[in-house]
Design goal:
The protein is an alpha/beta fold and 190 residues long. It has a single domain (2-189), classed as Flavodoxin domain (Rossmann fold). Helix content is 37%, strand content 17%. The protein is built from six helices and five strands, in the order βαβααβαβαβα. The chain has a five-stranded parallel sheet with strand order 2-1-3-4-5, with helices on both faces. Helix 1 (15-29) crosses helix 6 (170-189). The longest helix is centred in the last third of the chain and has 20 residues, at 170-189. It is globular. 38% of the residues are buried.
Length: 190
C-alpha cells in the first residue's frame, strides 16, 4: 500500500503535520510505503485557469515542483491531507495545491483517478469548539468523493496549542493510530 501525505502548514513542526506524520509512521510500521510533501518547501503556482487539462492534455500543463506531487497522489492508495486553520479555511499553500487537482477531472467532470482510494483530512484549529469550521472538511470531502475516494476520514485538533504539542493529546494520537490501522486493514480487504 502507498500512502502520500500532503502537508499544508508553513511550519514544519505544526500540529497538523505531527498528526499526519503519526499516521504515516504507524502505516509504515505495518508495511505501507509512505511519502510526504511539505508544500511550503516547494516552488509552485496555483491553478492558472488555462483549461489545457480539459482541452489538450489529461494532466496539468504547469511545470513546477507540484507536478510530481499530483502524480504521487494518482499512484497512491491513500492520501493524507493536512492543514492548519487559517481564517476559517485551509492554509494558502494547501488551497493552491488543491486548486491544481482540477486537472484530475475530465472535461465532463468525471474523475481521471482510479476509484477506491482513501483520504484522511487532518485539520488543526486554535478554536476550542469543534462546532466551528465543521464546514471546511465537508467542502473538500465533496471533491474527494467526486475524484473517487471511497473511504474518507477526518481528524481534527482543537484548542489553542503550541506548535508540535500533539503529544499532549493522547486522544488524537490514538485516533491517528486507529486511522492508520483502518487504512492498512481496508486495503487488504479491497
Amino acid at each position: 500500500m502507498k500512502i502520500v501525505a500532503i502537508l499544508g502548514s508553513p511550519r514544519a513542526k505544526s500540529n497538523s503535520t505531527a498528526l499526519a506524520r503519526t499516521i504515516l509512521h504507524q502505516a509504515a510500521e505495518q508495511g505501507a510505503e509512505t511519502q510526504e510533501f511539505l508544500l511550503n518547501k516547494l516552488e509552485f503556482k496555483g491553478c492558472q485557469g488555462c483549461e489545457t487539462c480539459k482541452t489538450k492534455l489529461d494532466h496539468c500543463v504547469v511545470k513546477d515542483e507540484l507536478g510530481p506531487v499530483l502524480e504521487a497522489v494518482k499512484a497512491a492508495d491513500a492520501v493524507i491531507l493536512a492543514s492548519p486553520n487559517y481564517f476559517g479555511e485551509v492554509s494558502g499553500q494547501f488551497k493552491s495545491f488543491f486548486d491544481r487537482t482540477y486537472s484530475w477531472l475530465n472535461p465532463d467532470f468525471s474523475s481521471r483517478l482510479i476509484p477506491g482510494k482513501a483520504s484522511v483530512f487532518v485539520f488543526a484549529q486554535g478554536q476550542p469548539s469543534l462546532d466551528m469550521y465543521r464546514d471546511v472538511h465537508a467542502r473538500y470531502e465533496m471533491w474527494l468523493k467526486r475524484f473517487g475516494f471511497a473511504r474518507n476520514y477526518l481528524l481534527r485538533m482543537n484548542g489553542p496549542r503550541a506548535a508540535d504539542s500533539v503529544s499532549q493529546r493522547p486522544d488524537l494520537v490514538g485516533q491517528a493510530e486507529e486511522i492508520a490501522h483502518e487504512l492498512i486493514g481496508g486495503s487488504k480487504q479491497a
